[in-house]
Design brief:
135 residues; alpha+beta; Nuclear Transport Factor 2, Chain: A; six-stranded mixed beta sheet; 3 helices; 50% strand
Amino acid sequence: MTTNTEEPDRLRAQELAWTKAILANDADAVGRYVSDDWILISAEGTIVDRAAFLGAIRSGVLTHDRMEFKDWRVRIYEHTALVTADAVSGGTYHGEPFTTHERSTSVYVRRGEGWTCVLTQLSPLREADTSASPV
């Protein structure tokens, strides 16, 4: 059994393994990290369910060749965890290249000794305007 101080590292490692599966465009591997009822809320606010997301990967409609994270934050509340990061990704969607810069938030629930992602929300990030007031 892991200690509470090890859990944030376990969750970050799981996120990185999930990312590796996405970069490999391996729908079966991606599916192992998310619950059957997992949903993605896209940066545009669209709700994408597990079947649609994995189907897009399987068919080649969605591919990733870049995923980078920084500013990780992990919060654990008994059997629930929130993992946020500043994320840059790229690939193709319907054959068209894309690059995104988003705040990624994933909600995990503890299942047995492990964690399963049940929801991911992507919020678009804009480059900072240094001429704007910070207030």
